């Protein structure tokens, strides 16, 4: 059973990275409570649509906040938030092992992965995904799924390095979505 409030303190995710963080810059990785989801929504929207205008981002963040709140809680479901020493939300991911309501959503499923721009390329996303993998294993699953846009080269490279393989492609030709899978055996 995952501790309900605090998962890890001072997680040193960057040890094998070029940009080694100082101890004082360590990131806290926490199970997100409902009160964290507003910041998580802003992080998601700015990470995925950062170049769009502020009013678009405000509306999108509002919609995301509602979606994350509705999705919150439940057995075999966890939302993780990474916080900087100053307390800012710098990373987020959702890990869901609940039965799927839609045939297009394989389970267990990792989604909504985002890292704040100034915290990228330090291994934080890798750490978040690997943490989801351990959680999924603790739930007694032997594999995990993700979806990623075919054009998202940064994320695809990372998932490839983590051992994920493409098992399906769908969506419009202009916006192909890859379903990727990793065996945890
Ligand atoms: C994709 C994303 C989550 C990666 O976060 P991150 O913390 O920078 O990732 P990591 O530091 O763990 O990167 C691991 C590896 O992935 C690859 N990678 C990550 N970002 C990359 C980039 N911009 N260009 C090329 N390769 C990249 C590299 O191989 C990297 O290893 P390296 O830094 O030793 O070269 C982040 O860029 C992001 O939030 N993007 C916007 C939202 C998004 O696309 N989410 C994923 C949806 S499926």
UniProtKB/TrEMBL annotation:
One of its GO terms (cellular component) is NatA complex. Signal peptide: none annotated. SUPFAM superfamilies: Acyl-CoA N-acyltransferases (Nat). Residues 32-185 form the N-acetyltransferase domain. InterPro entries: Acyl_CoA_acyltransferase, GNAT_dom, N-term/lysine_N-AcTrnsfr. GO terms for molecular function: N-acetyltransferase activity. One of its GO terms (biological process) is mitotic sister chromatid cohesion. It comes from the Eukaryota. PROSITE patterns: GNAT. PANTHER family: GCN5-RELATED N-ACETYLTRANSFERASE 10, CHLOROPLASTIC, N-ALPHA-ACETYLTRANSFERASE. This is N-acetyltransferase domain-containing protein. It comes from Pelagomonas calceolata.
